Amino acid sequence: MHYHFRKAELSEIAPIWEILQQAIQRRKEDGSTQWQDGYPNPEVVQKDIEKGEGFVLEDGDTIIGYSAVIINYEPAYENIEGKWLTNDDFVVMHRVAISEKYLGKGLAKLMLKNIEDFALSNNIYSVKADTNFDNIAMMKIFENLGYIYCGEVYFRGSPRKAFEKVLHKQN
């Protein structure tokens, strides 16, 4: 298995959207309200990619995961009910999804590690993220990777659990 993490291309919206649709369906089957309101959608993915913020995880030539990776911008994070660990530059990840065929292989963790490496390569030492209260799988991943629960943020009127991980300079 040779996994590669890179910026997505506009020509890749279809396979990315397929992975997101699988994730939306999984959340629904889990009884979650997350991603059940028409968001994310193909337009959101297109905007991510146009801004250079859409990233894919590949196995050879096959796209198997997607995430938006954004530097220093998430208006919802300014109004946290709680407190972030840092107030410096940060990377935020949104829309993390892994292909149905690749579940259970630790690839969401691998993707988060790639996002952390991306942050470090830009001399940024904080990664922030949020997830729905009922997304137990994602919260476990955050916990396993050393993300700290910081409080609540709100998206489209819904509360989310907010997490941050402070990264350390690589020697």
UniProtKB/TrEMBL annotation:
Residues 3-170 form the N-acetyltransferase domain. Keywords: Transferase. One of its GO terms (molecular function) is acyltransferase activity, transferring groups other than amino-acyl groups. The keyword Transferase applies. The keyword Membrane does not apply. It comes from the Bacteria. This is Acetyltransferase (GNAT) family protein. It comes from Flavobacterium glaciei. The lineage of its organism: Bacteria, Pseudomonadati, Bacteroidota, Flavobacteriia, Flavobacteriales.
